[in-house]
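In this notation, each integer encodes one residue's backbone shape. One such record reads:

___
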Amino acid sequence: MIELGQALNLKIGYADGGGANKNRPYLIIKKNENLVYALNVSSIKGKSHKVLYDSNIVINRYNPPFRMKSMVKMDSLYIIPTVEGLENCLFAEGKKLNSYDLDYIIKFFEDYRTDNTIVEKLVSKDELLINNSPKIERTIEDLAKEEVATSESDDK
């Protein structure tokens, strides 16, 4: 089960339009039955200048779930569908970020969002499945829908 404060290790495109070139960590800050809302996390190694950006904050107690000193990027929100197998992409066996730090990050994000533009990326189910297999597999239901769609297009 996916929970607030956990981190996902996913290969998805950047919110600003860049391609999905590698797996990156995403901190879950909100969720509902169908969607997970997450912020991109990056290690600060070699990026000390980026720590100074207003849109980035350092995570004080980063481990777990992150192994390296890290920062959270507030200027982009990733909206991720809760597909079957998503829990296979959790960092640190699903261990959660310290609740104090999580609460601070969520509050900071909400305040930041009030005065700044946030780029929201709604990740499609297809992007998630294509870029993160075999951790996330298509379900039998997805395969059936694809088969129906293919047969309908063949009939035309």
Q: What stands out?
A: The chain has a mean pLDDT of 89.
